[in-house]
Structure formats: structure tokens, C-alpha cells
Amino acid sequence: MFSNKEVFKIAFLKRLEMLYGKSFEDSSTRDHYYTLGNMVREYISSSWIKTNEMYRTTQTKQVYYLSIEFMLGRLLVNNLLNLGIRDTVEVGLKELGINIHDIEEIEADAGLGNGGLGRLAACFLDSLASLNLPGHGFGIRYKHGLFDQKIIDGFQVEYPEQWLRHGNVWEVRKPDAAVEVRFGGKVEVVEKEGRFIFRHVDCQTITAVPYDMPVVGYDTSTVNTLRLWSAEPSPYPPGIDVLEYKRQTEAVSEFLYPDDTNDDGKILRLKQQYFLVCASLQNIVSSHRKQHGHLRNLHEKVAIHINDTHPVLAIPELMRILLDEEGMTWDEAWKITTQTISYTNHTTLSEALEKWPIYLFKPLLPRIYMIVEEINERFCKLLWERYPGDWDRIEHMAIIAHDMIKMAHLAIVGSHSTNGVAKIHTEILKHREFVNFYTMFPERFNSKTNGITHRRWLIKSNPELTNLLLNTIGDKWIKDPAKLDELMPHTTDGAFLEQLSNVKHTRKQILAKHIKNKTGIDIDSNSIFDVQVKRLHAYKRQLLNVLHIMYLYNRLKEESNFTIHPRTFIFGAKASPGYYYAKKVIKLINELADKVNNDKQTKDYLKVIFIENYRVSLAEDIFPAADVSEQISTASKEASGTGNMKFMMNGALTVGTMDGANVEIKELVGEDNIFTFGLSADEVMNLYATGGYSSMEYYHHDVRIRQLCEQLVNNFFPDIGNLFEPIYDSLLVQNDHYFVLKDFAAYVEAQERVNAAYINQPQWLKMSTVNIAKSGFFSSDRTINEYASDIWKIHGQK
Ligand code: 26Q
User: Fold this and answer.
1) Cα dist from 113 to 142, 147, 228, 258, 454, whole Å
2) What pTM, to 2 d.p., does this model score?
3) 163 burial class (0-12, 13-18, 19+ CB within 10 angstroms)?
4) Any idea which of 117-126, 199-208, 641-650, 690-699 has the lowest mean pLDDT?
5) Domains of the chain, start order
6) Which residue minimizes the CA distance to atom 19 of ligand 1?
7) Whose CA is nearest to atom 5 of ligand 1?
8) Atom number in ligand 1 closest to CA 642
9) Is residue 264 predicted with pLDDT exceeding 80?
10) Is the CB of 634 within 6 Å of ligand 1?
11) Could you tell me if the CB of 117 is within 6 A of ligand 1?
């Protein structure tokens, strides 16, 4: 079907006819998309079956990656690429008069995630399959992914996302593998032959129906599985309000919760978490039983990884199965559970650590609550033996305290591995946030610096750079991304640097055209493309970027001999719908864009673009076009960042704080090839501890800062009244919790270094080359190999 373009063309036309009963002339681009999608899925299916059979017969250890989010983006072209048939298809379609990019655009992003954490899960699946590792994802098939963002009058407005509106060619519904999940009710204890038996009665039952999606590895026949659960009503029990029951059931997989760090206490969110865990564990345990007949060796054949604490109920749920269904003793069950489960932490923001109040938890999950209580009691007893009389420490470390269940404590205590997502993040976990746990269980803590799949984020999204690399250093880096380092001798190769410059320019023109189509705004592809794309959060400090743009604007207006290389500042960001401050910052960016872009005096030097509805598919056009990567979080707050890696791999230079993986980028490229600035993580944490920061001093002592703050509330932005007063207050009344003003001067100075470096193009291109050459470390293949050997103890299958 894909052996060469002629065979492909015939197969495609025939399939189009069969599926739609239309001639080619009458068919639409959507028809073409579904035709091709069906062909590809069919092409995948035999390898998919073989991979599953092989896993079954060889009884190799499997890893299951449990995640409440998977931000896959589009799959068509990625699958074509990994199958090695992209070029054949592209050329074949072209000869039929079809542009593959038009077909690609039909596919909706699978946006079942908020940001970094969900995208990381998607990159990990791609690497697992590409490395022939037996690893699968379990998630939820949300009917609506992350909301669609529209900007209306400068404000963010949210609309429900509808990725399934036209169906999903990549999924296979498996009704025969459906399982039941129970909520509420009571636990009855009966004694039988000297043992206690727990029975769950009067509960509400819902059905979890799996939808499987194939995960295709690159240049291999391995096809792993992402299993997404959908909530459906179980056969209706008699005497209930049927419509109400259906509504409540389907609500469980209806929406992805937008990241609202402070917003716990949503019962439906807890239901989603248990729904994912309970369905996935039944599935894991029943396949294990089929192969081995018992669960005593579960930890030898299965690794279960929990992506943050969202699936942490896997710990008490596995205990429940081993105790209540298998009749094991507590100690046997605990050993198997802790040896099976491992946990990744993605945040040090203490307000973002999940906690659930008992009054919500216990009625919803009565048996699970009993087990969590028992885990807590046994753990506190252990603490008491180890630290007799140290009530303070015991209270801080307890899993249940002050009527709340602390999910991260449960995760650390109930697993054999806890990892952070970058070196500095893991150090903060070990020495600050979880220092007591680290003292008690040092061997459980380890670091796994995040990564990104270079297949999507370089080969697929930047074919121009890919070709240049192939022509320059060959193709070894594709299977072994560390070999991008072979580019190092070319940092002084004039012909190479010129081609690199051309590639970047081409990608900037592509993005400029896209922006023109969407916004009507012309941007200069010779200007510096300075990009900050990520969720909107106070700690990521989009506000610092905004204040710097206002500062440049002020100077251009006030100083006739001040000049800079023209810059286009590009933002993309969704704010959680209930996050008041973040929404103000979006409005501020849009007001600033309006002002700056329409000022005759400055518009040739400064442009500000807010890209609406930032998501994976847009990101693929943005990273290749960037010159400057903005990674300016308050040090210690960004666990890792992964956008920073995508920019680097596409040759952008980082302006960043010493936070998250920026620290490792600097280690790799050297201080001459990155623009770092600002407070260190230690300085930030000491300032919090001592209270030694007063933002007002900066207001009084720096005239630039004073002017900028006043411009937020005088009529610099006309007709907005006191709209930005809350931002002003965050800086000056609430003492600028994220040190925006304190880091301002250093940021301006770093940006001046950027300007000077860019003007020296040979120098800039050399720096850019070093960044690409050193980016291989950030391939998620490296990350996944580390998880596989250090944590999961699984091995490649070919
Ligand atoms: C919590 C409670 C209720 C509703 C939603 C949530 C929720 C959802 C998503 C809380 C957090 C998230 C997502 C967190 C996240 O994306 N963290 C990022 O993870 C990346 C991958 O490790 C890191 O690179 C980033 O630094 C980190 O911020």
C-alpha cells in the first residue's frame, strides 16, 4: 500500500471510493484526511498485533505510565514519519494535486493536557516505542480537551474544545475489555474462617470502556498502546433516575480540568483520578493473572509509574486488590505495591501539592480511605520509633494531618522511587520540600532530567533544519541524538553558518505568513523573533517580559538617539479560566500590542504579537522560527521546563534564569552561548526565609521601574480605567512575590547582550550552532533510557 508512490496513489484512490462513494473530483480535503488516516491505521494494525503477541509470549516486564494528561497533538504526519512512509505519501499526494499540509490541517489536536506535564507524557510514549521498550500509557478519553481560547477585545474567552466532533481515526473502541468502577456506598466487614473480608455494598457503579490508540515507534515494527478510558453507564440498576445517572456517569470523562493549582476540592476531579487508577489496575492485574496465575511476582513483571500525584490512588488500590481479592497479608501486599510503583514529582510550589479533605474523600472511596488510614498509621508508628517524641516532624511527614490527605507523602511512602525532573529541581526536593523524607529514605530519591522527542520537535517540525543537518553530519543523530554534537566542528564553517541563517529565515517567513493570515499584522522576518510560549502563570513572569517591552518603547519614544535591532515579541499562553491575575496579564499583552504596533514612531522597531489558542500544532511552527527563547521564571519555581529544550534544538538562544533545565542548558553550551540573569534559587529562597525584600525600594530607587509601574495605572493604556490595578498591586502592595522588579535591571542588561550578539551575525550563528549541537542530551530517548534502566528495570525487545 505504501511501497512506492504509484502503488500508494492507486490504493488511495480506491480507498477513497470505497469509503465515501465519491469520485476524486467530488471529494473534500476532509475525505482525503480520513482516507489516508484509515489506510495508515490499517497499515499499523499487523505490527500492533505482533507487538502485543510478542509481549504476551515472551512475558517480558512491562511498564505502564499512568497519567491524567496526554497532550498528543496531531498524529497523522508523525505516524507517517515514524513508519518511514512520509516522503512516499507526500510525493504521491502531490502528484494527485493534494498538498499534505492541507490534509494535516484537518486533524484536530488531541489536546488532553494542560501543558508541560501532559506533553512530557506524549514525548515519553514516542520514545518508549522508538526504543522498542515495552511501555504503555493509561489515561482518560476526555470528550473535551483543554479549552479553546479566543481573544475578544483583548480578553481571553474560553470555549469547549471538540476534538472528537468528526470522530478519531486513531482509536479503536474495545467494549469487550470494559471494566466497572465503584464509588460511594459502605464497607461491610465479615469474619470468615478467621479472616476479615471487606465487602463494598450500596455503591454506584460506572463502566470504563477502553479506547486504544497505537503508538508507533520510529523505524521499528514496535507498536505500543495508549489506552484511554471513557466513562459510560453500567446496565441500569432498578429504581434509579436513569437520566440523572447517565449524566453523572458521563461527566467523569467529559472535561479535562484546566490546571488550577489552588483549585482542589473538586469532587469530580477526584472521581476522574480514581476512575483512571481503578480501571487501569484491573486491566494490569487481569493480564498478569492470565499469564502467571497469581500476583506474587507482580513487581517482577510489571512497573507502574505515576505521573505526578494525580494517579497516586494506584497505591491504595493495588493494596486493596492484594489484600481483599488475593487475601495477602499486609506485609506481603505492601512489599509488592512499593516495589511495583514509582513516582515523578513535577513541582516544588507548595501550594500546588495535592491535598484532599477527608470529608470529600471518605464518602466517595470508603475502602480506599480505610487503606490510606492504615498506611498512615503504620507510617506514623515507624516515625515514632525512629524519632521518639519528635511530634513536630511526625506531624509534618504524616500522610493524613489536619483532616487532609497529602498525596505527595502517600506517593513517596508507597513507592520505591521518587524523581524530580531536572537536577536543580531534585536538589530542591531533597534539601527543602521533602528533606525529612530524603533523610529517611535517601535511596528512593533520584533525578531524571526531562526530554523532548526530537522526532516531532526537530525532524517533523523543522524539515529545513533536518535537511541541513543530514547534509552536514549525516543521519547517525536520528537514532542517536547525542551525535548532534558532531556539528561542533561546523561552528566556524562559513558555508554551514550561511545555510543555517537561510533555514532560520525561511522558518521565520513561514511563521510570519501564518501570523499575517491570523491577525492581519505584518511582521518583519529580519527582526529578532523573541518568543515566550507557555501557560500563563505569575511564576513564569510573562509580566517581566511585558515590562521590558514597555521600557524599550519608552526609550524609543524619549531618546532620539536610542536604537535597537528590530524585534518581534511573540507570546502564546492560556490562562486557567479562574486565574484572575493571569487573565489580566493576557489583556495587558494585548493592550501593549495594540499600542506598540500602531505607533508610527516605534512600529519598525517593536512589534508585539499574541498568538491565540497556543497548542501543540501551533508550537510546531513557532519553535523553528524563534531566535530568542524566553525562560524567565523566578529561580526555584520552574521544575524543568521543556519548551526551553525545543527552542534550543531549533537553534534559538536562551534568555533565562538559573532555574529548571536552563541550568543544564548552560552547563552544556557554556556561559558564552546563553544569556542568563537574575537571582539564583538559593537567593530567592533566602529572601523568602529572611523577608529581606521590599519591592517599594526598587520603585523608589529605579526611575525606570517607577515609570513602568505608573504606566500600569495612569492613562498610558487609554480607556481601560483601573483594569491593571491588580497587577500594579501585585508588584507594590503585595511586595512582588515573584521578584519581577528585583530582577528587572538584570533582565534589561541581558536583553542588551542579546541585541549586541544578534547584530554580530557570524557570532550569533555560531552560538546558535553550539545550541543545536548540544541539544541531543535533551532527547526524551535519553530520559526514557534512564527511567528504563534505573527505575523500571525494563529492557528493549529487539
Ligand atoms: C491540579 C489540581 C486540580 C486541577 C488541575 C491540577 C493540575 C493539572 C496540571 C496541576 C498541575 C498540572 C500540570 C503541571 C505541569 O505541567 N508541570 C510542569 O511539568 C513539566 C514536565 O515535567 C515541567 O517541565 C514544568 O516545569 C512543570 O511546571
Assistant:
1) 10, 10, 13, 8, 20
2) 0.98
3) buried
4) 199-208
5) 59-74+109-450+785-792 (3.40.50.2000), 454-679+740-776 (3.40.50.2000)
6) 117
7) 259
8) 24
9) no
10) no
11) yes
